[in-house]
Amino acid sequence: MESRSMKITSHKNKKIAIRVIPGHFATNHSHINYCIDFTVVKHTNTMAREAAREMAAEYANSTLVDTVVCMDGCEILGAYLARDLERSGINAVSQGNDICVVTPEFNSNGQMIFRDNMQGMVWNKNIVLLLASVTTGKTINRSLECIKYYGGKVVGISAVFSAIEEQQGVKIHPLFTLDDIPDYRTYAFQDCPDCKEKKKIDAIVNSFGYSKI
User: Fold this and answer.
1) pLDDT, tens digit (0-9, with 9 covering 90-100), for 47-69
2) What confidence score (pLDDT) does residue 36 get?
3) Fewer C-beta neighbours within 10 Å, C or N terminus of the chain?
4) Percent over 70 (pLDDT), the chain
5) What is the dihedral sign for C-alpha 136, 138, 139, 144?
6) How far is CA 196 from CA 35, 89, 185, 192, in A?
7) Which of 58, 79, 59 is nearest to 69 (CA)?
8) What pLDDT is stored for residue 95 in this prediction?
9) CA distance 30 to 212
10) What digits encode the pLDDT tens for the residues 99-143?
11) SS3 string of the chain?
């Protein structure tokens, strides 16, 4: 499977790259025809730093940010994003503001929650929601519902890759889009053309990576 992988470099910054693998993949919400590997951009110091710098530029001098809420294992990206939002010359609005970086917990019922000791970092705060990948928008919907419940206000959504431009009226700022992977497709399980042709699923995919079948 890995032999089919292709490297795609961001048009915003040539130091940022992801790998994509064509095939038949299943996620929690859909079937997709490309597995996007975010491992390097999420977990290596150099590329995470470059990616966060590009993300921070989307909010420069215009948006006060108090908290970065991280999904999909994006805590390293989130820490660098908070640093760059605080830095002089990057975002004068948030300069000097002590930006929090938090991740919601999932309880035994699969609901997203913030424990009591974390809720003060969400309540009445301006929040940037950070994700690795946006395909159907279902994860964003759950995240927005959770943040709203705890009294936070989402002022922006950042993602490494997004197949959609906005969700619930909030603009998504991605590093990679469908322009970078023009034949990327996502299907409801019952509509997947590979399933209809009885093609084997290559791997199960989630925010942590993939597991071959």
Assistant:
1) 999 999 999 999 877 778 999 99
2) 95
3) C
4) 96
5) positive
6) 19, 53, 15, 6
7) 79
8) 65
9) 17
10) 999 999 998 888 899 999 999 999 999 999 999 999 888 889 999
11) CHHHCEEEECCCCCCCEEEEEEEEEECCCCEEEEEEECHHHHHCHHHHHHHHHHHHHCCCCCCCCCEEEECCCCHHHHHHHHHHHHCCCCCCCCCCCCCEEECCEECCCCCEECCCCCHHHCCCCEEEEEEEEECCCHHHHHHHHHHHHCCCEEEEEEEEEECCCEECCEEEEEEECCCCCCCCCEECHHHCHHHHCCCCCCEEEECCEEEEC
- What pTM does this model have? 0.91
Q: Tell me which residue of 1, 77, 84 sits closest to 39, measured CA to CA.
A: 77
Over residues 167-187, the pLDDT tens digits come to: 999 999 999 999 999 999 999
